[in-house]
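Pinned message: reference record for Cyclic nucleotide-binding domain-containing protein
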Amino acid sequence: MVTASIRAWKIAGRSLRHAAGNLRGCATTQSPGGFFHAVSCFRERWTSRCHYFVHVGNCIVLLAINQKDMLHLRTLSVTASCCGIAYNLLQPTPLWAPAAWGAFFISCHLYYITHLLRDRVGITMDPDHEAVYERAFMPHGFTPRQFLKILQAASGRIEEASCGAYICRQGEAKKWIHYLLEGEAMLIDKSEDKVVNILPGKGGWLGEFFDPAAPEDHWDAPRAHQVSFKCIAHRCRFLTLEISPLHKAILASDLAEAATRAEVSDLWGKLHGSHHEHRRNTYSAMLELAVADGKVDAKEVELLEKWKTRHGIPEDDHQVKLAELGWTTEDFFPGFSGVKIE
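Predicted structure (C-alpha cells):
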C-alpha cells in the first residue's frame, strides 16, 4: 500500500510540474487582459486535460488515508479538495455546485487544522501542575490545553495539610475533590475505621473524580462526603478542584471517555493499594503477636523476615511498628538470651 502510494505521488508530481509550466506560459503572455486573460488561457489549455486533476487528487487522497498524523491527513485532504475544485471548474460548463461543496469541505478542514496547530503550541506549567498532569491526566488522553481548561473552569489550586489534619470529613458538604501530590492520606469509613492509605500516583484521587452515569446537573444539589480523608504524613500537598464545574467542563469538552478511563485507573490503583495495605496490616498483627510475651526467638524472627521479604514490606514500616510496640531493633533480634530487657 505504501509503495503504491509513493509511486502514485511521483506520477502526480510530474503532472503538477507539467501543469505549472503551462500556467507560467499563460501568465507571461503579453496581453492587456492581465489576470483574467491568464485564467482564460489556463482554461483553454487545461479543459481537455482536466482529468489530470482527478488523478492527482485521488493520488493525494491515497496518501492521506495512509497518514497516522491527523494534521497531515487534513492538510492532504485540503490539497485533494483543491484538485477536485479545479476539475469541476475546468469543465466546458463549470460545475459550480460541486466546487462550492469542495470549498465548504476545505473550510471545515482548515478550521480543525487551526485547532490542531493551537494544541501543538508549547504550553508551560509550573512543576506542581505538570506533575498532576503527567500522573492523573496525560495517561488517559487529556491534552495539556484541555487540562489547563479544566483547571481554570474548576478553580484548581494547590493546597497543603499538616499531619493529623482532615482534608475532608464525612458528613461535610462535598464541594471539592482532591488529588494527592505529596505525602500520604488515610481513608476512614463511617465507623471511624481505617480502610486504606492513599499515596500519590495511580489511585491518588481523594474521592470520585468522575461518574459517567451522573447527569449534568447531579452536582447542583447539595452532596455530603461519605468517608473522611486524613493526612498522616508530615505534610500533604494536593490539587483541589471544584466538583460541579469540573463535571460540567468534562461533559462540555467531550472528555467523558477520557475521564472514565481516569476514574477506572484510579479505582484499580486503590484496589492494588488495599491489597498492599492488607499485607502491611497482617504483618503488623504478626509482629504484635510475636512480641506479646516479651521475647522473640530465632524461629519467630525467621518467619517474620520471610513474610516481610515475600510481600515487600518496607523496612521503615517494620521499624515504625517496633517503635509503636516499645521495641528497638536490638531488642527484636535475639542476642545472648533473646529476651527483651525492660
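Pinned by admin. Summary line: The radius of gyration is 34 Å.
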